[in-house]
Amino acid sequence: MLPNRARIADPFWTSYERLVRETVIPYQWETLNDRVPDAEPSYAVRNFRIAAGVEEGSFGGFVFQDSDLAKWLEAVGHSLASHPDPDLERQADELIELIVAAQQPDGYLNTYFTIKRPDMRWKSLTHCHELYCAGHMIEAAVAYYGGTGKRKLLDAMCRFADHIDSVFGAESGKLRGYDGHQEIELALVKLYRATGNERYLKLSQFFIDERGQQPYFFDREYEEGLFSPWTEDGKSGKPDNAYHQAHLPVREQTVALGHSVRAMYMYAAMADLAQLNGDRELLEACRRLWENTTTKQMYITGGIGSTHHGEAFTFDYDLPNDTVYAETCASIGLIFFANRMLQVEADSKYADVLERALYNLVLAGMAQDGRHYFYVNPLEVWPEASEKNPGKHHVKPTRPKWYGCACCPPNVARLISSLGDYVYTVNEQARTVYAHLFIGSDYETVLGGHTVKLRQHASLPWQGDVKLEVSLPEPTRFALALRIPSWCTELPRLAINGEVTDYSSGVKAGYAHIDREWSDGDRVEWLLPLSAEWIEAHPEIRANAGKAAIQYGPLVYCLEEADNGKPLASVSVRRDAPLRARFDSELLGGVVAIETKGRKRTTDGWSGQSAYRRSGSASGAASSAADIPLRAVPYFLWGNRSGGEMSVWIRVSDS
Amino acid sequence: MLPNRARIADPFWTSYERLVRETVIPYQWETLNDRVPDAEPSYAVRNFRIAAGVEEGSFGGFVFQDSDLAKWLEAVGHSLASHPDPDLERQADELIELIVAAQQPDGYLNTYFTIKRPDMRWKSLTHCHELYCAGHMIEAAVAYYGGTGKRKLLDAMCRFADHIDSVFGAESGKLRGYDGHQEIELALVKLYRATGNERYLKLSQFFIDERGQQPYFFDREYEEGLFSPWTEDGKSGKPDNAYHQAHLPVREQTVALGHSVRAMYMYAAMADLAQLNGDRELLEACRRLWENTTTKQMYITGGIGSTHHGEAFTFDYDLPNDTVYAETCASIGLIFFANRMLQVEADSKYADVLERALYNLVLAGMAQDGRHYFYVNPLEVWPEASEKNPGKHHVKPTRPKWYGCACCPPNVARLISSLGDYVYTVNEQARTVYAHLFIGSDYETVLGGHTVKLRQHASLPWQGDVKLEVSLPEPTRFALALRIPSWCTELPRLAINGEVTDYSSGVKAGYAHIDREWSDGDRVEWLLPLSAEWIEAHPEIRANAGKAAIQYGPLVYCLEEADNGKPLASVSVRRDAPLRARFDSELLGGVVAIETKGRKRTTDGWSGQSAYRRSGSASGAASSAADIPLRAVPYFLWGNRSGGEMSVWIRVSDS
């Protein structure tokens, strides 16, 4: 059964939901139909028309182009669930007719292989994203069914999943393989939850169990003359199993390695299976991979993946701020993983990371206009270097328009339009409802046979006041577990029906458990102390040595050239520099800015005729710094004003 | 006429000269003959045997493989000049027989084109290093003639140059082109100096004048279906003229751009021509390019070229320490350029850079065993990142063995074996002999018709005492101009025949001019104050913000993990930290080490379970640093003990 979703009604997030609904989804529909001037054509809808036989032509776009359309449809499904829109629904229904028309009699669906390489079906799992595309269409089908109750695409995807199940498996005669890009695994779990058909759960388990077993599947494909859609001659180099997280059986993996989006999608599926099957060994692997990812390989913004070479993880504590990758999609995958872990075991560390990635990295991925996106999310930008140093070409100082490879924008859209899935989880045995995120919303669940409704009011990220109203048909005992965010400098204050309440004895794994008989109309106030704080990085993170960052509640801040001039590297602060949070309604649509005092090295005494000098000389550095006011803005809004320098980490002068 | 060369006899440099003579040259000969086990074959000698018709087979190695052999032969020529060695000379004579046998009847010589692509002769200047190889063989011929007086190769190369002159030129029917990799230009100047034949000077001038004129020559080659030896199908992408410094006429160029070795070789030739032709416009271009290269795009080590993508310059002040390229060959090219500028105008800024690149970068390029070489010379190394972060794969933590593309090792060999060319220059009109480098040596020149001999004793880099003895047949008036190194913290002390002498009125452009009637047996003492100094970088160099480096005389120092633990990023010093220089006879064969006190962040209070924390917390960073002793070693010797971390720039805690 699919879990209930909270309906968002929040002063901060509602505007993002609206942006997705009113701008991103329509704009994306135009791009999928090749109707945006000056943008590369997507070919996504056209490919389906050709595969369905209603248009002539050849396949266009990437081998995984179908997934763009699937992700759009998934976002539409989520959006319709909370905001019915007959016109949008009609558009989607027509698209689903087309998709189903493109499906082959045996249930197979993939326009690349149907149009261009029918001979290669299931023959290049390493490179062709064939099951990845299937997974996205399954996720779309489940979302659309959830949003509208319509089964047409869901039924079609069950036929496709049945077909996949007939092709892949451990049984003799079946293909003992898996996809180069994980995604089908978590999608099949969703399909299982939506239909109750255990066949899909088992198929997901097969893919997870098989991965990384020897002899390696991708090596076997390679030995049989692996086809690649990425080279002119169709030839493939030897696959790098670690890039696909297929170098070891998943239960033996201990560190996050390889392509970061693939890793996250796989870990999320592993957590799903650990939960549904009570698989302790798999859960242990998930915990290890979580710890490694989030405590050794994650940026303060919630970004993951340190290198653009393979969009990949590198190794522990290697977190360069300027040559970083930190793809938006990877952090969305991290949120999926966190969400699954919270369903297995409520520990605030998962929600802390989820919130960090959501408020900082994912939001940074999208411009305030909803039409420009970062794929790469740097923590330090020098625009001239992005232009002129090839090692930084991938780091853009401003958000580009929708790309040809449009993975990130539709991923942002589907996440934000399903944000209500991330606010609460329920442990029915323990009769506990966990509030992980503090986002204004309406939520309904069933605990011990009683329908419990929670209306939440929140004022994050600018203020920390949270209120919850309980609606119940009759008094009911259950625990409301409120997350104590790691960014709270002191414990939040709790008041129940206006009375301040001590909850210290009920704190478990970062949640305040309020276990009582609740009555209709009970009011809970949860007051989160919000203040600006200096943050330091682990000494092993060499890139941040001698530097500090600013956080205010869940938000990471940054310095921008627009406020502080350049070079930002010349700016430093004393470790005890006071931070002042001030709401500025004129700035970036209204934000809390953080003000402090800094010092800036000047070029006094530098003739421009040398690059180095003795610092003991009369005009040495000690005297050539000036006091300046500094203003930091939320990282998620950087690059909305100019293409100037930006830096999250600020040099600290010890004193 | 070729200028006289000083004969090196120096406690520091003689051992390098010997290393080149006794180890590098013989070892390199083995590699050129494919006789080194476990090393990639060079094919260089074999290619000549095939081209000469004494062996059957196909061409091996890179398109520029001939140049490796030429550079070896050049080093041999230089070495024989100072250290006759009949066996080596016989070996070289035999090789020259072979080279001449491979020369074509029209004078042409290039084994790649003779063996493999005779149809492509002079048809892919963009990519094929055809004139580059010619230039290196000409340099070899001049050096061998200089070292032995034998003309066989010189005459052969005159025939080749005559052939080139018949092919290239502005005249109708000739090819108005130039090479993708500059080198022929400076070689032809050397050939002119050796032979007095102005045809070679004019041909060099043609190549320099033609470069960057529109329509672009490389574009014309491209439009005619440019062949590339670098792609499987032989097809070429559109040439990047800036990469080859062919984007603008050379006189209009203002910033160092593109492949850094090509740039330096070209600038050196430009300076040669500016001097020989009194070409003011060309000289102005040289000055501009010098200023840009050395004051905006040079590392403190004398390294140039910030990116491995194209082994190229990026832009002003972009000098990352860890993703750096700073190829050994590029700094050798910078030394060539500096040497030529000193011949045009004696200004100590040229010699300062020459010395910086020589003592730090070039020497760092070679291991103490003479058999391992850095091509890339980083200022900051984290070995695990070199291995696991693809953006740093090019940065090696230890010197690898001779590469397949062996450009740097023979370049080091030919530079060190001709080091005597860099010590002095003479301005005959002004009757001045300039001492640029302080290296023990014997030098002889003619001033105003009199033979002047200078014997220099020096103790650099460890001590600053320099002595010069003048030998003269009869008293002669001339000026001895002694460089005042930029690293002197106060003016050097001068004593003539034991008497301290005030020279302050005779300081011009960084040289103390001692203009007097000199007598046989006059003794000059030039006492350079040597001390360890903190150096800071220009505020626009973002990579060095808040950091300082240590210099002791001409030497740049670095911290190594072997002495100071890791991570080195955790180490900081106060700006007023005292530096103590101490000679340690046990360390790295005997060096002055610099000792100071530092602080090191500890991991106290870090659980390993988080990457970030509030720095205001009880166990904050302020309290979690420990005082430690620090020891810095000369940069040129880094990586001779271990594959650990290394850093030139050290974080400074202001206070």
Automatic annotation (TrEMBL), chains A, B:
Taxonomy, superkingdom: Bacteria
Residues in Non-reducing end beta-L-arabinofuranosidase-like GH127 middle domain copies: 432-529
Hydrolase among keywords: yes
Domain Non-reducing end beta-L-arabinofuranosidase-like GH127 C-terminal: 533-651
GO molecular function: hydrolase activity
Cited Pfam families: Beta-AFase-like_GH127_cat, Glyco_hydro127C, Glyco_hydro127M
Name of the protein described by the UniProt record: Glycoside hydrolase family 127 protein
